[in-house]
């Protein structure tokens, strides 16, 4: 639940009203969003993980990436199984060029959703970017088993092969894909 059990204990504005104002400010890119989030946090009426997630989103819009990553990490600490929080955290790490950490976060998400080809593609790209070519090849092969007609997956597998020194294998893979 978004709201804590004691959320009706304060006089004045309801947490729903304050949360609505916060979400509107976030959507509009209004820098008042952080102030509103602070007010919600002080009241202690909204789920802390969700507040950290909103703070990360607001900080991302303001391009304050380090702080946004810290807020996303705090959201994950509150709710480690939340896919939204993990996705945002991985994205922020990638934006900070911390590609290996971003890949590790994305790998956690892929392990929870192994049949999701979009997540596997993202993981493979992060692994390639962090020069973890063997792992990238493994993930690309798994993604190809799920999405055999995906040109993007074939491209990622060919890149993996190339970086592992298998130029012939990369060329053959691409030629076979073009011939289909």
Question: Can you describe this structure?
Answer:
- This protein is mostly helical and 180 residues long.
- It is 74% helix and 0% strand.
- The chain is elongated and about 60 Å long.
- Mean pLDDT is 85; it is low at 1-12.
Q: What would the keywords be for this entry?
A:
180 residues, mainly alpha, 10 helices, elongated, disordered N terminus
Cα-based radius of gyration, to the nearest Å:
21 Å
What pattern of helices and strands is seen along the backbone?
HHHHHHHHHH
Biggest sheet statistics: none
Category from helices, strands and their pairing: mainly alpha
Query: What would the average pLDDT be, to the nearest integer?
Result: 85
The total beta strand count reads: 0
Strand content: under 5%
User: Residue ranges: pLDDT <50 for 5 or more in a row?
Assistant: 1-12
**What is the overall silhouette?**
elongated
Helix percent band: over 70%
Number of helices: 10
Q: How far is it from the N-terminal to the C-terminal residue, by CA?
A: 49 Å
């Amino acid at each position: 639940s978004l709201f804590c059990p004691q959320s009706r204990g304060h006089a004045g504005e309801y947490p729903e009203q304050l949360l609505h104002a916060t979400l509107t400010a976030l959507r509009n890119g209004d820098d008042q969003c952080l102030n509103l989030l602070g007010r919600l946090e002080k009241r202690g009426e909204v789920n802390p993980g969700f507040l950290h997630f909103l703070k990360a989103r607001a900080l991302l819009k303001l391009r304050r990436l380090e702080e946004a990553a810290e807020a996303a990490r705090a959201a994950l600490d509150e709710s480690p199984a939340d896919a939204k929080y993990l996705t945002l955290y991985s994205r922020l790490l990638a934006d900070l060029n911390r590609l290996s950490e971003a890949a590790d976060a994305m790998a956690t998400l892929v392990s929870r959703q192994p049949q999701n080809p979009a997540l596997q593609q993202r993981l493979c790209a992060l692994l390639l970017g962090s020069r973890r070519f063997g792992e990238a090849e493994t993930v690309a092969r798994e993604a190809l088993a799920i999405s055999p007609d995906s040109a993007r997956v074939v491209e990622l597998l060919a890149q993996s092969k190339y970086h592992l020194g298998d130029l012939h294998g990369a060329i053959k893979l691409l030629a076979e894909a073009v011939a289909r």
